[in-house]
Design brief:
The protein has 308 residues and is mainly β. It is built from no helices and 26 strands. Strand 16 and strand 17 form a beta hairpin. The radius of gyration is 17 Å and the shape is globular.
């Protein structure tokens, strides 16, 4: 493992209960994220430090801008994929423009969790099992879905907590996590069709004696994965070809939920966290959003959702 002395971790927002799904909108130079259990969507503008939020009518798993718009987003609310309109102002009203789909209609206890647009703007998002008590989930009730012009396609099932999506076009790879597997999956990825195949595992948390669970992740331009470790107080930089940890970034919160690259040069790593009292109280700054600078790497631009 190596550490760079120049790495800086800075808190940029006040805590929320379960921050998730950070998405950097290059056009607006703004970070969007959600607080799932508080049913809120958030916007943070680094240039001004402005942080605004508003509430939806259900638990929201992710927020992604709709391509070509400045005020429309695709969100996953409970088990529905919706297009909403929000002006980004504090507490302002959200209008549902369109319902794209409702999934898991045969398992009404699940909810949508992490979601991202793939390099072509198709939506990939998964569901997770009902949390029967804090940290105790119904097993293998969720699925991973893709939404594009062909409609909704179930890509895999038997998932407990759908998380962590990343694509590597050079390697024709799709990386994905079911958090309770304690592993990171790799699939062959066809960028033209969006299909995935040939599941394998590129990293095992238990075999590497990593405390915590793999949560959200992103990928840098060199093909390394940056993985949020829930219950682990850190982010891991993992080389998926070698299956090794090349860097560990401590974060002053226990429940690290997701990461994405952003900023004008795409060299800032934004980190969402949670403050849920699962085993004990999580005092501030737990639940805050952080930015990590000085990593010496860059990410790819986040892709906005292209309406089918």
């Amino acid at each position: 493992m190596c550490t760079r002395m120049s790495v800086s971790v800075q808190k940029i927002t006040e805590p929320v209960l379960l921050g998730e799904g950070p998405h950097w909108d290059d056009r607006q130079q703004a970070l969007y994220f959600v607080s799932i259990k508080q049913k809120t969507i958030h916007k943070y503008v680094p240039a001004s430090g402005a942080h605004t939020k508003t509430q939806l009518d259900g638990r929201v798993g992710f927020i992604i801008p709709v391509d070509g718009t400045t005020d429309q987003f695709v969100v996953g609310v409970e088990r529905k994929f919706l297009i909403i309109q929000w002006d980004g102002e504090e507490g302002s009203k959200v209008q549902v423009v369109k319902e794209l789909a409702e999934v898991d209609q045969d398992i009404p206890t699940t909810r949508i969790n992490d979601g991202k647009a793939d390099p072509k703007g198709r939506l990939y998002a998964g569901t997770m099992g009902h949390e029967e008590s804090p940290g105790n989930f119904q097993k293998e009730k969720g699925s991973l879905y893709r939404i594009d012009r062909r409609g909704v396609v179930k890509m895999c099932e038997g998932v407990t907590i759908s998380n962590g999506l990343a694509w590597d076009l050079k390697e024709k790879a799709f990386y994905y996590t079911d958090s309770l597997e304690h592993k990171i999956r790799r699939y062959d990825y066809d960028v033209d069709t969006g299909e995935i195949s040939n599941k394998s595992y590129i990293f095992d948390f238990k075999k590497n004696n990593i405390t915590g669970f793999p949560d959200g992740m992103t990928i840098d331009t060199e093909g390394n994965l940056w993985v949020a470790v829930f219950d682990g107080c850190c982010i891991l930089k993992i080389d998926p070809k070698l299956g090794i940890i090349s860097q560990k970034i401590p974060i002053p919160a226990k429940q690290i939920t997701s990461v994405t690259f952003g900023g004008p040069n795409l060299d800032v790593l934004f980190v969402t966290t949670g403050s849920m009292p699962i085993k004990e109280e999580q005092e501030p700054p737990c639940g805050a959003t952080f930015m990590v600078t000085g990593l010496g790497v860059k990410g790819h631009p986040n892709v906005n959702f292209k309406l089918p």
